[in-house]
Structures are given as structure tokens and as C-alpha cells.
Amino acid sequence: MRILIVEDDKDLNRQLAEALEEQSYVVDRAYDGEEGHFLGDTEPYDAVILDIGLPEMDGVTVLEKWRADGRAMPVLILTARDRWSDKVAGIDAGADDYVTKPFHVEEVLARIRALIRRASGHASSEIVCGPVRLDTAASKASVDGTTLKLTSHEFRLLSYLMHHMDQVVSRTELVEHMYDQDFDRDSNTIEVFVGRLRKKIGVELIETVRGLGYRMTRPENEGAGKSG
């Protein structure tokens, strides 16, 4: 899962990025509204953390431009404690949620997890596919109750496929959501990670859709209502 942080306070930006990276998210960072708008307009993100009080272009304007251009990624806005009007303006501009400064980083992480789950149609913090269980709150995965030992790339791959269960996901899309903007991306490595993940899961849940990509599918005897 790939997150964009647009926050001009460099210390806060770094703290948020480090916390997200510890939870296996891929993070891109911007420090002003113009840079943030450009990244959000040209790169695919699973969620954005957007400060309202930004230099160059304020956060509300950035968000309005994204929504006007059809950018639908979930956006969590950061507002000052005494500026209730910023919260209203942000929500009206298309924000999905807000956090008031000062805040605990854990609250931001929880809200981001919830936004990503909701955007992909999952209500619970746990997503289940057959014997595989993804705990989004703890950033862990298990098979039949046994915790999987996954690399960060393998976890990101599994997480993205499970969030988009029963959907065909192309290699290009996986690459775009598993690596940051500066990474030397190679879609051929996705096949390697898929192969490793299949071995560790030990069950046939990841289907190769020839010429299109991959799809993680629930076992036929598992009802759709058990996905989360």
C-alpha cells in the first residue's frame, strides 16, 4: 500500500513517514501544496495525509483540484486545533476524514487503515481469504493461525491482493503500489514475489490471469460475507 504525506513541518512529516514505513507502507513525501498536488495528480496512492496549512498552495485548494480532476483516493486532512472552519472546508472539498493537531501518530495510522479498508469494501481490521488472515492493525498475516514470515515486499503484495480480492490486478498496478516514486521499478520482479508468496501460503488462492495479471480468489465454499 502506497501513501502520500503532504506536510510542511519536516519533523512531523518524517515521524509520520517512519511510523507508516514500520507498518510496511510505501511512503512518498511532499512539503508544499504544489509538490503535493503534482504527486497526487500523477502517481497512484492508496491514501493521502494532507495538511491544510501548506505553503505555495493550501491543502483545501490541493484537495479541490484533485477531486475536480477525478482523483478519488482517500484523503485524511490534518487541521489546527482551533480552526474548526478548516475541518468544514476540508470535508466540503472532499476529505474523507480529519485529525486535529496535536495528535498521536497511532491515531493517524488507525484512521489511514480504516480509510484504505473502506475504499476497498472491507469493514473489519481483519481480511480473510480461505485459511489466510490479514491483520491490518498489526501488519501481520497468518495461515490457519500460524503467522507467516514475510519480507516487506511479500507483505505489501499480499496486502494489496487481499484488499482487492476477486479483482484482476495487473503487474503494473502492483508495481505502482508496492514501490515509491524513486524506486527503480521492474514489473518482472512481481512474478518472483508471487511465486514466493504462493509457496509460503501453501494454498492455491493467487490465480494468474494470462495477459492481465493476478487475482486472489476465495475458495468456492467460502461465502463472500466472510471477507471482513
SSE topology:
Elements: E1 2-6, H1 10-22, E2 26-30, H2 33-42, E3 47-51, H3 59-68, E4 75-79, H4 84-93, E5 97-100, H5 105-119, E6 126-129, E7 132-135, E8 140-143, E9 146-147, H6 152-163, H7 171-178, H8 188-201, E10 206-209, E11 213-216
Parallel strand pairs: 1-2, 1-3, 3-4, 4-5
Antiparallel strand pairs: 6-7, 7-8, 8-9, 10-11
Characterise the protein shown here.
This protein has 228 residues and is α/β, with parallel strands linked by helices. It folds into two domains: 2-119, Response regulator (Rossmann fold); 126-226, Arc Repressor Mutant, subunit A, CATH 1.10.10. It is built from eight helices and eleven strands. The chain has a five-stranded parallel β-sheet with strand order 2-1-3-4-5, with helices on both faces. Strand 4, helix 4 (84-93) and strand 5 (97-100) form a beta-alpha-beta unit. Helix 2 (33-42) packs parallel to helix 3 and helix 3 packs parallel to helix 4 (84-93). The longest helix is centred in the middle third of the chain and has 15 residues, at 105-119. The protein is globular. One of its GO terms (molecular function) is phosphorelay response regulator activity. One of its GO terms (cellular component) is cytosol. Residues 124-218 bind DNA.
